[in-house]
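User: Predict Mu transposase, C-terminal's structure from this.
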Amino acid sequence: MIYNNQVYQYVDKEGKNRIRVISIDSAILYYVDLHGGTAMPKKATIEDMEIEIESNVLIPISDPFLKSYAEEDLTEKQLERRNLNWEIVFKAWSQSKESILSKKNRKTAFLEIAEEHQITELKVKRLFTRFWQRGLNKNAMLPDYMHSGGKGKVRELSQEKKVGRPRIYGEEEQGINITEDVKKQFRHVIKKYYRKSEKLTLNDTYQYLLKEFYSNKYHEGESVKYKVWDKSKVPTYNQFYYWYKKTEEPQLDIQLRYSKKEYELKHRPILSHSALETDGPGTRFQVDATIADIYLVSSFDRNLIIGRPVIYGIMDVYSRLITGVYVGLEGPSWIGAMMTLDNMTMDKVEFCKQYDIDIDESEWPAHHLPETIIADRGEFEGYGVEQLINNLNVKIENTSPYRGDLKGIVERQFRTINEKIKRKAPGAIQKEFRERGDRDYRLDASLNLEEFTKIIIHLVLNHNQRTIEKYPLEKAMIKEHLTPSPLNLWKWGLSNRKGSLQTVQNRSILRLNLLPKGKARITRAGIKFKGLSYGSDKALNDQWYLKRKSERIDVVYDPRSMDKIYIPYIDGRGFDTCYLLEMSSQYRGESLEEIEFYQQMLQELKQAESLKQREERLNTDEEIESIIKKAVKQKKANANVSATKGEKIKDIRVNKKAEKAMNRQKESFDLNQNKKESPAQVVSIEKENEEVEQSKTSSSLMEKLRKKRDEEFGKDQ
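Assistant:
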């Protein structure tokens, strides 16, 4: 319901957003803006305004000009000005309301009022603006003497009468009543400011409430300021806080202020446990990687610090038994995950023996494939591992981003292992940020990778035997007085539950399905992959280089050593091995990372040389063009204008012979040219006569050629 003289505020506009309804007539209403020195009525339908109110675009607010004046507190001058202005406005509003509201007739009405009272039209506009903006009452016509006077000037006050609001000591400000309109204002600022990623406090949000709904905006010089209304007309912070707590929506607040992932990870109700998702050992394994909080040293020189290792672990959800582990410098990446999956199927007695740790099979009986592996998205998505492992009837479930709680069992356990290492091992990170003067804990690093792996194995063996606190034991377990340790739960589950464990007969086939996959191309120069050339007996015997030339085939490879690649069979149960050919032998024993580095460096060198060659070619072309231009210029200077085309090409053969003879003299070798002749050297008369004869013969030939040419072309020519 819309009421006359009600004040509303638009929530989606800045600054000029408050209006007052000044007249309602049937389905039409008129309103004015509560800003500006002159504000004229605007027309709107009641239906449109009700829609805006229902959609919370327009919110009812308290009247900012509602004040209680005591007549005895007003001066005679204020009363005189008020009464005079009220007489003008009230008479005109009563008699000519329709004309004043009409945009078409308003100017005429204002001119008549101005003429009647001997004032200007602008004065009439300002009087009616004050009347409409300040509540359509008599006191709306009071002059604003509170804004008059000079800043910094001393006021002469009367001793008999105290100015300002009387102060009552001990009075508690209760604020206004919290009506539905005020609650709308609360909801608006909570939605607009509090439920945002900026994470404003409730106190900050309350300040915005006062700014938007309970203050007047004004300018002081170039700066904008706000004057908050009197305390008796604004809700208190306690009222705002009480209302918020009464209608609080914690889930929505966390999701909008932080994120849905934050809520799911840290704040959602935990009403179940992971064991309910399993039927026994092997139903679901969880895999996770963490960078250990310790620095290691090199295995061949303990003075060299090599950084922090990566720990990968796989755990059975049902029993909490750790079924696979990898400690190394690969990762977090697919190579590290691949090594962990390989260790998962390995005989743990053999594995521990590699590190001089003797165990019985009953102490770590896990060497199986599960039904499902729960993993992070990164390592188990990039290489399409789902298709590869499906050949072994294993499913992959990738968790949502930033949802470590979905594999919280393995996350928690490896956090515990990390904390134990930090307390005991030298070189462990004691705190994230060192303060000035603190010793650099990296200098204390003493363990190498093999020794650190031994520590991890001992911690895993200890975990598999420890009692699990708060494990949800089944009735049958309680009846059998089962101690809930991972080993006991694993053995009990194998005996009493279905489980989904799978054994691996051929670890080479497992590794074939774990290795990264790529595309190679068959060419006459071998099987090309990553810029390297490979060959195999099968390719040679079946004439692939001729029959399947340019065909692309699937291969798998180990990026740690590119000496071999493997062509898997269609059934995924076998493979052909391809070996590096001699033309790529310079890369033998190198990893893919090193090979790509060399290839990139080679391309950069070629690119640099290519630029140099382009410059050389440009300079060569310039020299050639210069020679040609010079020759053309000389030909034009010595051109025989009178000779015909036929005469110019007639004796090409004769000219060639003459040029050849002259060129021979120029090109002939003189073996004594650089030899210093002895002063006593004797030249035989026969040799001298021979040279004279040769010279005569050559001169005679040249003379004949010249004579022949002169006869053909004419001596003058």
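The longest strand covers residues 18-25.
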